């Protein structure tokens, strides 16, 4: 007998969990499509040169090798670690076949060979949307991404949430006005991104020792980080700081414009949070992430931002982009751990047709097809034991109705498993219509 | 600039093709769910020991390695090459959490490191259903798999098709009655599986030289292969051969019983074809595959059968299974090459809200949300250029309607892109209801 095991970092769900995941995916997909995002998928693999072009820590990459294959000079392939690099490569490759602005959604697995730890996976689903423009991409597209993200959270109904926003230009402009050079500015972003995790003292130390700024400047950066404000108070709060830097001013204008375009419903969920930095180095403007207020330890399950230079790593074209990535596997793991969704159904089946004897099976199949034609998933019991056993099966799988077909005259009787009630059914199609409503 | 390229054997579709693929997947999923199959997914990887347990040619396997990782004693992982071995391992692992008969569908990518060739891919989607029983699995489940397969082909409407069926026991029983030993019987199955591809002479030679049977016996095997019959004539045809072998008789009984349970509609698509063998060694009873009659060179896109011993490679439990695997990527590639589905839509969007000026954008967003609330995917144009440019965008993406919002009084006017007609709309929700019908 071969050894079987769960492989650490590679989760798999039970059927009732997968049904819940599919429900979540369908909800999100409906919102994405309602805004006109079109589905795209890319291969699971890219050339290693493509994956490395962003300067990723390559220890996290999975490389493929054909078992026992001789070295045949084929280019080295790796599993993608996100969906943003692949879609940038896709756009560069298919540029002339796409209509811009190009709005796509993408639900795929990604892989990272990290050390497995609680809530981190080596294989996981991401569900992304991004909008790409030809040469330019107006801030209306940034606002739409935030709107869609808000709708997703509103629909999933996982409790109170906040969408934290910032703009990279505000951070870079501030650091510039404090005298940091280009390299220091990038390092400072990486440092303050960890303030929630490591605390103020650690970040101060990193700014002084790692980034090489003076203690006074480091304090100012950390003080700045603590600023949190609302869309309404954003202008007043930032103006009060009296920072005269062009990039800072541009970041402020951009953020004000994006937030202005949001509905008041979405605005009420926005928190401007000047500590937000986002680790990835490709962001150039708006950045954001979400937080479930009642589960602050869970961290962000959806974040993203504006990146104006990524596609041009693969193309001569200028194709600015903005998007959000939702970590579906992390989200579902969290949902299961906290029992946030009902997991009663073990099957899509709603009607079980019971079978008195094998002679009756063909007739039962025909009746089941009539129920299916009304859009009601139906099973015919696979053997013909005593009825109690068939009803047990329905109860175990949470199938709500059992249909009995009389062996004498093919008349129909239906048992409601939850109430125990039984009724005769003369018009099967009418009954199906009623349970569909 | 990083080098970009399509990687041979790893296909990716344009948005209009992906929309067509999603249409096909939704249709198939609807049929699977209507019969009560529940979604399951497994990781993309398995332990190499799991993948190898069936004695696969391991050159076709992709092995994973973490880039630059030190040898840390982790078990070797490989990408799965089908969905049958993973689900057998899944059932063994989660046996106590599943309700039997366990009916699941699974849509996932699989990988094979074969030499790329026309119509063969290294990464491809399979869309499988299988039913598993605890200890026993009645033939009603085999019949259901054929019924579902027939419904899929009927629904996809890709032209005339045939479902070829056979039973491994009929083949093994025949070979046994001709004096072949166990190893020879397995080899003979592999040999005759190639008769369509290699022709009669090559198979005769292989039977004599490779399998080691006498020329007269080889001729009998090949003659037997040529037998094709219908469900109605099956009994008569097989009885005429006067083969007295218990396994042969059991295979005949099984096949007769399975075909008897099918609707006359499905029976009309069945061809009993005694040359059908299926290469994989785990089949133990019913085997089948489909053929598109107008495209015989395309080969089979959906096949499967009964396998009673696979799960027990991973478990002490006896869990017979039967199922079918549909090669979605091969199917879609074939559909695209032969223009079998319309590819007009480049987006789910049905209404484009045009924007006269940026001052109007927030109002346009609100109107778009009203249309979306009626279930109609809607975009708001991302800038506010001359209307002609906005209408061009709708035409390029095949968006059927453009909605104009008056800058003066917010009154609404809709242009039908196909007819060119324009109408005033007083009740937006009513109009949405009408286009939904």
Concise description?
The structure is a homodimer of 437-residue chains. With 437 residues, chain A is of the alpha+beta class. In chain A, a hairpin with a 6-residue loop joins strand 15 (401-405) and strand 16.
Task: Explain how this protein is built.
Two copies of one chain form a homodimer. Chain A has 437 residues and is an alpha+beta fold. Helix content of chain A is 39%, strand content 20%. Chain A has helices at residues 15-34, 48-52, 84-93, 139-156, 168-177, 182-192, 195-198, 200-211, 215-225, 234-240, 246-260, 264-267, 328-337, 361-373, 387-396, 428-436; strands at 38-39, 45-47, 62-66, 77-79, 102-111, 123-132, 161-167, 228-229, 270-273, 286-292, 302-307, 321-327, 351-353, 378-380, 401-405, 412-416, 422-425. In chain A, the strands form three sheets. The first copy, chain A, has a nine-stranded mixed sheet with strand order 1-5-6-12-11-10-7-9-8. In chain A, a hairpin with a 5-residue loop joins β16 (412-416) and β17. Chain A is elongated, with a radius of gyration of 27 Å. The model of chain A has no long low-confidence stretch (mean pLDDT 93). Chains A and B meet through α1, β1, β2, α2 and β3 of A and α1, β1, β2, α2 and β3 of B. β3 (62-66) of chain A pairs antiparallel with β3 of chain B.
């Amino acid at each position: 007998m071969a050894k079987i095991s769960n492989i650490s970092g590679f989760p798999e769900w039970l059927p009732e969990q997968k049904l819940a995941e599919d429900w979540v995916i369908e909800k999100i997909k409906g919102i994405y499509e309602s805004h006109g995002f079109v589905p795209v998928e890319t291969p699971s693999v890219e050339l290693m040169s493509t994956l490395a072009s962003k300067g990723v820590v390559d220890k996290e990459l999975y490389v493929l090798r054909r078992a026992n294959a001789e070295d045949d000079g084929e280019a080295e392939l790796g599993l993608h670690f996100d969906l943003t690099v692949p879609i940038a490569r896709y756009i560069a490759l298919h540029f002339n076949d796409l209509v811009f602005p190009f709005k796509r959604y993408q639900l795929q697995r990604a892989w990272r060979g990290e050390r497995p730890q609680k809530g981190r996976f080596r294989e996981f689903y991401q569900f992304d949307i991004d909008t790409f423009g030809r040469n330019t991409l107006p801030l209306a597209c940034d606002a739409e991404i935030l709107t869609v993200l808000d709708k997703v959270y509103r629909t999933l109904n996982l409790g109170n949430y906040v969408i934290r926003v910032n703009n990279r230009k505000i951070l870079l402009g501030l650091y510039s006005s404090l005298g940091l050079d280009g390299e220091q500015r990038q390092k400072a972003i990486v440092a303050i991104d960890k303030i929630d995790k490591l605390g103020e003292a650690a970040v101060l130390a990193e700014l002084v020792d790692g980034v090489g700024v003076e203690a006074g400047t480091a304090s100012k950066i950390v003080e700045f980080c603590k600023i949190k404000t609302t869309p309404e108070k954003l202008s007043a709060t930032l103006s009060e700081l009296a920072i005269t830097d062009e990039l800072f001013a541009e970041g402020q204008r951009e953020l004000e414009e994006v937030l202005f375009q949001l509905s008041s419903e979405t605005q009420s969920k926005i928190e401007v949070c000047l500590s937000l930095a986002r680790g990835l180095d490709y962001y150039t403007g708006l950045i954001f992430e979400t937080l479930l207020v009642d589960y602050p330890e869970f961290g962000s399950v959806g974040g993203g931002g504006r990146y104006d230079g990524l596609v041009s790593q693969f193309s001569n074209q200028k194709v600015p982009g903005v998007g959000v990535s939702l970590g579906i596997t992390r989200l579902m793991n969290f949902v299961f751990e906290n029992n946030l969704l009902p997991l009663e159904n073990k099957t899509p089946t709603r009607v079980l047709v019971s079978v008195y004897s094998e002679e009756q099976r063909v007739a039962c199949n025909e009746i089941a097809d009539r129920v299916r034609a009304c859009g009601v998933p139906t099973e015919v019991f696979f053997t013909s034991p005593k009825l109690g056993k068939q009803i047990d099966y329905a109860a175990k799988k949470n199938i709500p109705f059992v249909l009995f077909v009389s062996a004498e005259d093919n008349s129909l009787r239906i048992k409601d498993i939850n109430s125990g009630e039984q009724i005769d059914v003369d018009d099967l199609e009418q009954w199906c219509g009623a349970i569909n409503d």
